Structures are given as structure tokens and as C-alpha cells.
Amino acid sequence: VCTSRFWFNYRHVANTLSVYRSVKRLGIPDSHIVLMLADDMACNPRNPKPATVFSHKNMELNVYGDDVEVDYRSYEVTVENFLRVLTGRIPPSTPRSKRLLSDDRSNILIYMTGHGGNGFLKFQDSEEITNVELADAFEQMWQKKRYNELLFIIDTCQGASMYERFYSPNIMALASSQVGEDSLSHQPDLGIGVHLMDRYTFYVLEFLEEIHPASQTNMNDLFQVCPKSLCVSTPGHRTDLFRRDPQNVLITDFFGSVRKVEITTETISLNSDVAGFESKLPKDELATESLKYAEQLPVAQIIHQKPKQKDWHPPGGFILGLWALIIMVFFKTYGIKHMKHVF
Amino acid sequence: AALAQLQLAVPVAVVFAPGSVPGDLPKPLPFRDVQEMEISLNLRASVTSRYEMVCRSTTAQEEAALAAATAQEADAALHPLQDTTVGSLTIYVLPETSPLLPQGVSVYVGKHRSALLRAVGSLAGLRALLRQLTQLMSFTAGSIATALADRVPEGQLSPDARRRLKSSLGYEITFSLLNPDPKSHAVTWDIEDAVNRYVQPVLDKLSLVANFSVDSQILYYAVLGVTPRFDKESSSFLLSAHSLPHVINPVEARLGSSAASLYPVLNFLLYVPERSHSPLYIQDKDGAPVSTNAFHSPRWGGIMVYNVEAPASPPTSLPLHVDVDMVRVMEVFLAQLRLLFGLSQEEVPPEFLLESPGNEGLADWELDRLLWAHTVENIATVSTTLTSLAQLLDKIGNIVIKDDVASEVYRAVASAQSAVAELATGHLQSAFQASKEAVTSSERAFFDPSLLHLLYFPDDQKFAIYIPLFLPMAVPILLSLAKIVREARQRKKEPTKVD
To answer: Which family does the UniProt entry place this protein in (chain B) (predicted)?
Structure first.
């Protein structure tokens, strides 16, 4: 989830897209990723290299690429939508790609980046999500068995405050800085003109580049990523709610997807000549007319349309109140005997 | 709370053929006997199983049926004479010398809801065998525990248990043909015919459990994520067992399962290897090639590798036309489907002989096993959902509960109660339907979009937001109101004072 918009927050979008790429590279398909981005970087008029988002000064890797599937973009990234995705209380018309269809055996990775403060995270400059709300959402998920284990990574200023209030079991949390510290960005790029990436995510990504789907690296190594000398802020982590020892938790448990498989050793025997077999197709299928391309834009109708008469509604609410106030003030000031002069 | 007193009743009829009645029966035939057993899941919850046995001797018609030549024919002849309600069992006890059961086999389990048992002398032995048999055909402590798997700590689950699909109202089955090398192989498969012939009967049998929808697709240039090794001895390519988990993910992105319905999707993939990688065999842990050449992943589906027969002489023109032998393929896929539903034959003791269910895919008693497990799972789910919903509503005092949410909750509670009652009296089918309705209603109530806690501010938040805004504005208003009141009082007093 990238919670900021506007050109100068380029680095947050680059952060999120880089993590998205790593996760896809390690095997998680798009159908299992919910990506929430403001998505206003690649086609921004201020982008000197349009249709690209770079994560490194040398412009090696265009993290926007060809196959980014953004599920919630632009103004759809709101606190309400985020909480709806987590808890599953989604209107029935939401398509499958926008839902979190996890069950009690799913491991969930949540990565959030943006601007934050002590106990809250700012969403798109207009609203905030507090750590209490997030903890309550996770508790709702736990009660409805929507996750087996959850890894929560946050890269914002004072990120550690966001995981202070978690109380549901099986949650592990990592943050880029402690309460009172700011997370700093990595390096500016003079060609593009903004900072490209945040330090913590940059070093996490360097670490992830060495992971391949069969690797056995565990979580303790992830905790050591980005010491204070490189990151300037102190990354923190929280494992007290997690049932397993982080030493035994593989990185690929969350970042990649390694399924359990079993060899099929049984077969059933089928009788291939089923005598007296009737086709189960409905015999009375209606003849459907052959499909043809539907006219999408009836231009002829639009051009010759007359403008629709809009019905006149009496002014309501606010306007009425304003006029009432003005009239009252006028007559209070000048006295009611002046009314005949008005009319 | 409802779960702690859950009672599962199974009506069983034990029919003694002449010459098989053990000498030390406690009461003369016919009589009723009830055996109760408690299955404790953890400290708080336990489930009681009641086997209501009606013991009687055979009727003349049943004796005639039992005079058949083989056990299979006897079972078929007995079928119209039995009580075949869902969840009930009929066991025929045969004398030790009966020729129906082959040597070494003491129990023959038919494909409906009946079994033939050879009396083994003492009553205690007979009782033990009966208990084993009834548990096999209905539910065991293990199968109930796995149905409630999320309440049991994970370490104690068998691989069988972890494999089971969660109970759902419907399932979507997708058959995909993967052809990575269309230049060499032009593969056709008559999937529609195969589905109608082989898959549909199985799904019709399972239609009691859930709704199924089937679709199929062909994907070209879809490769496995793993490169197989070439083995010189067998001059074939091998995929080792530990590389199998990495095969699924690169393919999954192209399967299009996100376009399907909201039901869980089961994918069955048929992979035709490239000409340069043929023949391709899957190796198990010991290095031997697997006879089915297939593997499956719990809660996901299965993959089978279909090797094209290499033509005797090099072909003159590529691509080769390949017509897939659907019978072989469907045998494997349907076996995988059974395994994914948790119907495996691992727990059967060696002296039991199970009749093959043929094209129907599963026996009636296996269907019953599924129904028992799903009903218990549904009831457990309903109770956790409603408890957690109640907790949420308690925490946020001013949440608005719409009328339809309230009616769904009432309906869920009523259905769950009726499901528990039906289970206690042994009506499995109605209990299952009631539990399905209960789950639907409770899910609809819990996941209603209006219950988002974000939308309802607790009172202290309201004060915190509005006081700083309105208090400064309110101060001059309150002061001037006070002034007006004081002036009005003074004016009232003055006329009385002045005069």
C-alpha cells in the first residue's frame, strides 16, 4: 500500500512497486496481490521519463514495467477501502481482484509506506489511519480466520508506533524507525528531480534480491537489514505475538509462495464404455443469434441530441439559510418599518 | 456453547444371518442398543457420538439375497431392502463359514450404505469389529477433529487433515491443458465429452454437498518453472520431488483464476511436455518414477504430465497430432479430486475389502463421511462467526444494525439450532442443509458492508473533534444569552419597583 500522492512523493510509489516486483519474482501471482497506489507518477507531466518509475539513480530498473496490476488506484486508496479489504466487508459488486480472499492457512504480507507520525499513518493527504484501528482490523481478521500468520512491514517516519497496539496472535511486525525518529530517503536523482527511494526499503530490497524461491534464509536476517549506520534511523521489529521462533520462519513463507505438494499415488478405475449413456446437454437449447460487435459509442445520436431540460428545484438548505440570515440582519439593523421602501 | 454439547447420532441396523448369532448375546433378538462415546477436542469442547443400534435377525428376503454367489451381488440384491436415508448404516453379520467373503477378508464394505461382516466368535470381538466398521463408514475422532481443525493446534494434524478443502457452498473446477510447444504437438482433447461422461456423475453425486461449476481452457506456451534433468539410464527427463512446489506458481499467473467466481477454485492441469523434454516423468522421494505421473497440492488442485508416445520413425511433418486419452487422464484427476476432498483410503484396516464405486467416483458412505465432517465444520464456523460479531457490536456501542442484518443473525441462530437438533436425532441430510443455511446467513451478517467499525465514531472521538471547533464560537453566544436573560429579569422587576 502506498499512501501518498503527488510528484514529490515519488519515492513512496517506487518503494511499493519495488516490493511488488520482488514478491512477484519470488512466485506470488497477481491474483494473490492487492496493490494500492496513487499511480500518478508514471504519467505525471513532471516526469522527465514518462511511463517509467525508477528505483535507483542509475536508472537500471524500471519498476513500473509492463505487467503492473494496480488494484486500487488514485482516489480509491482510502482508509475505508483499506479496512474493507482487510476485514472483508466489501460491497458485493467488488470484483475478485480487489478482494482479499484469504483463509485460515494463508500467510499475509502487508507493506505500507507513506508519511506517518506517532500512532497514525496519513492517507493521501486527507485522512489518517490510527494504530488502534489497524489493530482492531487485524483482530477482526483473526476472529474470522482470515490469516494464519501476518507479516507487517511499514516504512514511514515513526513507524514503530503503528505496531505498538497489535494484540492478535501470529503477527510479526517490522518498521523502519522508532517513535521520535524520521525515516530518511536514500538518494535524490538530479535527472528526475526527486528522491527515488527510502533507505530502509532500499536495503530490504538489496536483501531480497539474493532470495530465490528455494532459499532457506530466515527472518532473523531480515531483522538485521539496514543497521543504524546505513539507515540513520533505528529499524525495529516486534515478534512477541508470533507463535513460532523467527529463527524458523523462512523469508519465502511470506515473500514467496512455496506450496505443499503430494505425489498422487491412487487412481480410480473408470468404466470407459458406459452403455446407454445420454448426453446431459439440454435438448432444447435456444438458437442464439451470432454475436457481433456492439456499437459502443452511438456518435450520431449524441451529436444531434438537444440539451436536456433541467427541472428547476427550489433552493434548499444552505442557500435558504444564508438568505434568511441576511434578511434578518438587515431588518434588525434598519427596523421593520423600512420594509415598505424595499418593495 | 452450542458446540460443547454437540451430539452426533448414527442409526445403525445390525442384521444377524442365521448361524451367525453369538451365543453370549445379552438380550434375545431383536433389541436396541445405544453406544455413546465422547470425543474430546480440547479442554472445553467435546463431541458425543451415539450409535443407535437396532439388532435383529434377517428376513426371508434378505436371506435369499445373501444366498448370492459373490459379495457384490449380495450387496446389490440387499440394496432395495435397506433403509437408505443419508447417514444410516446397515451391517449384515454372516456366519463364520459363509462363502460370500473371500479368505482373509472379514468385512466387505459395499458402495451404498451397507457392509457384510463375518462373525468372529466372541461377542467382544464382534463388538470391536462393529465399532471399527461404523467409525469407518461415518466419522472417527480424527475426522471430527480435522473438521474443526482451526480449533486444534496445528502440530497434531495428519497430512490427510491438512489436505482437506474447507466446507464451502460451491466449488469451481477448472481443467486446463498446457501446451508449451505448439509447433511440435498439436494437442486436442475432447474435454466436453469427458466431463459429461466421467466428471459429471461424480459431481452429481457430490451435488448434495455443494454446487459445482466446471470450465476448461487450453493454454499455449505455458512452461513449467522448473527445468527437468536428463537421466541417461532411462533416457528420459525427470522432475524431482523437491522441485515440484516451484512448478505451480509460474503457471498460476496465467490460469485466470481471478476471473472465476467467488467460490474456491480447483485447478486440474494437464501438461504435455515439449518435444525436447519428452518423455518427462515425476520422481518421488526415493527416485522412482511415479506411476500416475501426477501430483497435487492441498486446497489448490492437481497437475498431471501426459507424455506423447514418440513415433517409431522421425515424423515427416511437425506438428504431431496428439489426441489425449481422456480415460487415463480422468482417472487421475478424479482420484485427485477425491483426495482433495479428504476421501482417502489410508485408514482402512487390511482385512476390510471395499467395493469400488465405479464411475460414480465415491460410495454413499464416503458421501456420508463428507457430510458429517462438513456439518460439524459449518456449525463450528457459525458459532465462531456469531460470537465474534457479538463482540464487535459490544465494543462499538453506537453501531447501527440494519434490519436485514438483524434478520440474518436470527436466521443463522435458528438454523444452527435446528442443525444441532437434527444431528442429535440422526437426520444427517436435513442437518447438513440447516447448517449450510446457517453458514450463509451468518457470513452475510458478518460481512455486511455497513458494519465497518471505522464508520461509527465512539463518543469520546465525537467530543474530541467537535469541542475545539464549537467551544470558542459558543462562548460569546452563551454570554449574550445570559445577558439577555438578566436584562429580561431586570425589566420584569423594574415596573414593580418604580411604581
So the answer is: Belongs to the PIGS family.
